[in-house]
Design goal:
heterotrimer; B: 205 residues; alpha+beta; 6 helices; C: alpha/beta
């Protein structure tokens, strides 16, 4: 094929490529503006030729694009402009309709140095429409969020989440009522956790939550026992067919286990490691009837007492006369 | 091991400080927040020891952005690495996502590639300028893997020497401080010295 | 001819200080160049030598160039001070302008410094 024909062929091919192709000379003037660019900018090649980008698009704000062009021409370094960091720098539109509404196309841009000979420097700008990819990701992200909330597992720690507790707890409670068996609940809160986060950072805070969750999970063995993440730094343990004594026993092991993890925490307490406070409450169907929520409240009151009696301890809710007794560590 | 005189080290340090200064300027623009970057330390390392040096001996999952450079003294790869969670926090801030490193979406990966691209171009660009070298580069590519995999991912030249720039990043408003590492393969490190000397002579006689 | 001036060059990079020194002394061989490598040292030196001009690197460990310049501005309201940095950000530039502190872009070269030197030399 003759050279002239080849060049002709390449010219036509580039014009037809289904992506934006712009060529700039070393003075940043446009020497090529392909069909895709014409279609989506509503600027013809004729109007674009021999002008710089800011000249044909006066509101071109992108410092990054201009720097990238300079780097390509002067230093022959290629650059990419991601959609995320550079919102639609060029005035390109998916359709006439969107142009009317001034809705720009989502663009991914590459700026590449082109050198035909040691003295001649050109720069090629390649534009891709990424609107579809962006939309797809947005949908996927939304689905992921929805899925996560429907799931029963807490994303961070891997143990059961609040939703699972609500279901399992209610069911176990109903079961206990029906069968006349006891059931216990332990509410747990990590001591001075906000301070821990502030001191060591959220990343550390997350690791701490994971370690505590694991330690607590280690202490329940039976199939219907459940350790769940109740809130930010709160956990709850469901113990079907367990009385106060049994629950206290488990609570003691949990408190000791977490303390023995030895997670450093320079906090205002006599112990310099991460500790937990626990509130235990038992449901005895032979006694006064209560609801599941009331059981949770009792455990919560007991936890409150533990927090206000110095933390790092367990309090058991005593039903008689609404008195609470403190249990030794 | 690679030995530089104090003056050569100083000159190289200053060259890179200028490079990251430019990068910081560009990134501040993107972030709309004051960002400072500096190069407190340059070191040279055998590729064999690289992974353990960078990640304190742990074989962690990290990500990096790589560009291949070609020129008279640079036939090499440069990689910008984000070796810790903190540096990712900074990226996350810029990119706006809330997903963990494992779950970077395609769009986020591309944003990270751009951040790597800005810093790599700035560092290598200023180096090439000062030392009057012509270089060509590939487009940036994003990589994620274990530190061991990532750092020996371009061939097993355990004896090759690499230059490591430890770059400190500080974001004013958010008070985030992070650290990225710029690694430049310098298998032809001998060639760097005469150019460096020439540059020094030009600048201070 | 105007009297010889004293320029205080502050930069933690010895290489940078040497570049500035070289540029200044090639243009005005009779001038004096003093050096400091930290913000703190700059303030000390400014109190012992009578500097006519300060060239201050921004990026330094410890007290940075901006803080040091502010302190110098407090003590010496008419002292000519110029910050040198590769990272020029609008916010910093405005803050500096408000204090009457100038800005010089890095890399340091003759073109950039000469103008500042000439103003001092002639004024």
């Amino acid at each position: 094929m003759l050279t002239e024909d080849r060049n002709n062929l390449f010219g036509h091919a580039l014009k037809a490529v289904n992506a934006g192709v712009v060529l700039l000379d070393e003075n940043q003037k446009i020497v090529f503006w392909n069909n895709w660019m014409e279609r989506h900018s509503f600027i013809s090649e004729e109007d674009a030729l021999d002008k710089t980008l800011p000249e044909i698009s006066p509101d071109l704000q992108s410092v990054r694009l201009l720097t990238a062009i300079r780097q390509a021409l002067a230093n022959r370094l290629p650059s990419i402009l991601s959609q995320t960091l550079n919102k639609s720098p060029l005035p390109l539109f998916a359709s006439q309709e969107e142009a009317g509404k001034s809705i720009r196309m989502q663009q991914a841009i590459q700026v590449l140095p082109i050198q035909t000979s040691p003295e001649s420097h050109y720069c090629m700008i390649q534009v891709t429409d990424v609107s579809a990819a962006v939309n797809r990701e947005s949908i996927l992200r939304q689905q992921a969020v929805e899925l996560r909330s429907k799931a029963h597992v807490d994303g961070l720690t891997g143990i059961a989440n609040r939703r699972r507790f609500d279901e399992h707890g209610e069911e176990s409670f109903r079961h206990a009522k029906r069968n006349g068996t006891t059931m216990s609940l332990i509410l747990i809160d990590i001591d001075f956790f906000k301070l821990y986060n502030d001191t060591y950072g959220h990343q550390q805070g997350d690791y701490c939550l994971i370690e505590v969750a694991t330690a607590l999970s280690d202490e329940v063995r039976r199939p219907f026992d459940l350790v769940a993440r109740y809130g930010g730094e709160e956990f709850v343990v469901v113990l079907p067919e367990t009385d106060a004594e049994g629950a206290m026993h488990i609570a003691c092991r949990m408190r000791a286990h977490v303390e023995s993890l030895g997670i450093q925490h320079a906090k205002p307490n006599k112990v310099n490691t991460v500790t937990i406070s626990l509130g235990v409450a038992m449901f005895d169907p032979s006694k006064r009837a209560i609801s599941f929520n009331e059981l949770i409240n009792r455990a919560d009151h007991a936890l409150y007492k533990a927090k206000h009696s110095g933390r790092n301890q367990i309090v058991l809710h005593e039903e008689s006369e609404n008195e609470e007794s403190s249990s030794a560590i | 091991m690679f030995d530089l005189t104090e003056l050569q080290y100083d000159a190289l340090s200053e060259i890179f400080n200028i490079g990251v200064g430019h990068a910081a300027s560009a990134l501040s623009d993107i972030l709309n927040e004051e960002m400072r970057m500096s190069v407190p330390r340059i070191s040279f390392q055998n590729r064999a020891n690289l992974a353990s040096k960078l990640c304190n001996g742990e074989n962690r999952r990290i990500c990096g952005v790589r560009q291949s450079f070609e020129g008279a003294i640079f036939n090499t790869d440069a990689m910008l690495m984000f070796p810790e969670e903190k540096s990712l926090e900074i990226v996350r801030l810029m990119v706006g996502g809330s997903l963990s490193m494992q779950e970077l979406t395609e769009m986020e990966q591309e944003a990270m590639s751009e951040i790597g691209n800005i810093i790599l171009n700035a560092c290598v660009g200023v180096l090439a300028d000062m030392l009057k070298q012509d270089i060509q580069s590939s487009l940036p590519s994003y990589h994620i893997g274990n530190s061991d995999e990532l750092l020996s991912s371009y061939g097993d030249h355990a004896d090759d020497i690499v230059l490591i720039l430890h770059i400190d990043i500080a974001l004013e408003k958010h008070e985030i401080e992070g650290h990225v590492a710029f690694i430049l393969d310098m298998s032809t490190i001998q060639d760097l010295r005469p150019h460096l000397d020439q540059y020094i002579t030009e600048m201070i006689g | 001819m105007n009297s010889p001036k004293t320029v205080l060059v502050v930069d933690d990079s010895r290489f940078s200080r040497l570049i500035s020194r070289q540029i200044i002394l090639s243009k005005y061989p009779e001038w004096r160049v003093e050096e400091a490598s930290t913000g703190e040292e700059a303030i000390e030196k400014a109190n012992t030598v009578l500097a006519d001009l300060v060239l201050m690197d921004v990026n330094m460990p410890g007290m940075g160039g901006i803080e040091a310049s502010e302190k110098l501005r407090d003590q010496f309201p008419t002292l000519r001070i110029f910050l040198q940095t590769a990272n020029i950000q609008e916010a910093t530039r405005k803050k500096a302008a408000a204090l009457g502190i100038g800005f010089l872009e890095k890399p340091i070269n003759e073109g950039r410094i000469h103008k500042v030197l000439e103003e001092l030399g002639n004024g």
